[in-house]
Structure formats: C-alpha cells, structure tokens
Design brief:
This protein is α+β, with helices and mostly antiparallel strands. It contains four helices and nine strands; from the N terminus they run E-H-E-E-E-E-E-E-E-E-H-H-H.
C-alpha cells in the first residue's frame, strides 16, 4: 500500500456549497451542527483541498496536532490565530493567490474555525473569501505543490459516534444484484400476502414519452395542435416563396405607342 500523501486531509465527503461571507456566530452554529444529529453521521475520506474558489466551504477532521494546511494557494502573509469568543478559535491567513492561472493580485483569504469548548475540537471548518489584495510579481508565481496530485484510494469512514472508525465499503456488483433480488422477493411476498397479482408493465404501441404522462384523448389533441402549428409554419413560408406573379398585359408594350394611343383617345370627339 502506498504511503498517504502528507498534504491530504481527512475531509468530509458532503458538499457544503459556497458562501461569500461567514460570521463568527454562523461558524459556531455550523460546527455545533457537525457534532450532533445528522451532522455526526457524515463520512470523511482522505482527500485534497486544492485551488478552492471564492466562497468554498470545506470540513476536515484533524487527526493530529494542528499543522499548516496545503491547499494549492500561495499566501504572502503568515497565518494568525485568535479567539473571538471563549469557544471559537480562528486561524486566518490573507493575501493568497493561485499560481499558474494568471492571477495578478493576491486577494484570497482563508479562515479555519475550530471549537475549543462545547464541540469536537478535531472538526475544522474552512472558508475561503475575498479580501484586501497585494500585487503578484512573476517571481512569486511558483506552484506550492506538484501536479498531478497522487490518487488516493481509501474508503470513507465515520469519525464520530458509535460508528467512529468504521469504514464505508462500496458494494460490488454481486452485492448489488443480491440486494435487488432480496428486494424483489420481499415485494413479491408482500403482494402474495395481500392477494395481489404481480404487476406487469403494459407495453404500449406508442413509445412516445408523452404517452406515459397523459391520456389518449389529451395526447391526440396535443399532437394535433403541435402538428397543425408545424405545418402552418411550413406552408406559410413555402406559400410566400412559391407564389408566381401574374404577368402584366403591358409588360411587353412600347411606352411611346401607349402614350400616343392615350393622347389620341382623349382628342377624339365623343
């Protein structure tokens, strides 16, 4: 088994979306929710946090003493630690940028939140946001890690509660087929106990998806209207294009002769 990359973290497998800003109160509430109820049943796996976007939120389990977090971002400032309240600890670093993608300003901010009282101290909430910026010189544009990142093939695991330490193994094809057979057998036994006939899906002659959602009459009316509109558009275009102009009886007449005849008709007495 290959050694686990040192810049990987035991990250929560749940996707938390993005949030432009996060207050200290919201961070405290977030961390409390991760330590109880459904949040305590979330799984974690060894993954990377790499080149995050503005507003991204990550959660990871700190398995050892606090260490610098490598996330693919180059920071021009040192990380500072402070406690805005008795229960919350914050690690903040500013002036970050992602090397190699053309960023000319370092304006990324990373904050790591951890509960020191009233929660699980190993659960760390990470939030990325926009902050004050500094210019980036070409000499600074050096990646902070080597790419491509090594692949980590380890199953997720629980980190809290009664299942703490248990791994979640992905079911293979045989297990899935066996589970499906068990479900089918259970459904058949329930139908038999209720005196019902097995449900057989009727095959319709018309395989149009619309026939599965509407009645025959409604389907016929809908199709008639749709076909009528399509044909109307086709015939409207072709009717204009194919209309042949009626030739004028004066098309080949001589203008001078017509004017002479017209003048003579007015000069002839009635």
């Amino acid at each position: 088994m290959n050694a686990r990359p040192p810049d990987s973290v035991l990250r929560c497998t749940h996707h938390f979306g993005a949030k432009p800003s996060l207050t200290f109160e919201e961070a405290i509430q977030f961390l409390h929710q991760l330590c109880q109820g459904p949040g305590a049943n979330l799984t974690y796996s060894w993954q990377y946090i790499d080149r995050p976007a503005e507003g991204d939120i990550y959660v990871y389990f700190q398995v050892s003493a606090p260490t610098p977090l490598i996330d693919g971002v180059q920071y021009l400032d040192n990380e500072s630690t402070y406690r805005p309240s008795q229960e919350l600890e914050v690690h903040e670093v500013r002036f970050g940028f992602i090397p190699g993608i053309g960023e000319k300003e370092a304006g990324r901010v990373r904050k790591r939140y951890r509960l020191v009282h009233g929660g699980h101290p190993s659960i760390v909430l990470v939030h990325y946001m926009k902050g004050p910026a500094k210019p980036v010189t070409p000499a600074m544009n050096v990646p902070v890690r080597n790419y491509p990142l090594p692949i980590i093939n380890e199953p997720p695991m629980y980190v809290m509660g009664e299942k703490s330490g248990q791994r979640v193994m992905a079911p293979n094809t045989v297990q899935l087929a066996s589970q499906q057979q068990q479900l089918d057998a259970l459904a058949a036994s329930r139908r038999q106990a209720a005196g019902l006939q097995p449900q057989v899906r009727r095959q319709d002659d018309d395989s149009d998806e619309e026939s599965n959602r509407v009645s025959t009459r409604a389907l016929a009316v809908t199709r008639f209207k749709r076909n009528h509109e399509l044909l109307a558009e086709i015939f409207a275009v072709n009717a204009v294009a194919n209309v042949k102009g009626v030739p004028s009886p004066y098309e080949k007449a001589n203008k001078t002769e017509l004017e002479t005849k017209l003048a003579s008709s007015y000069s002839t007495p009635v």
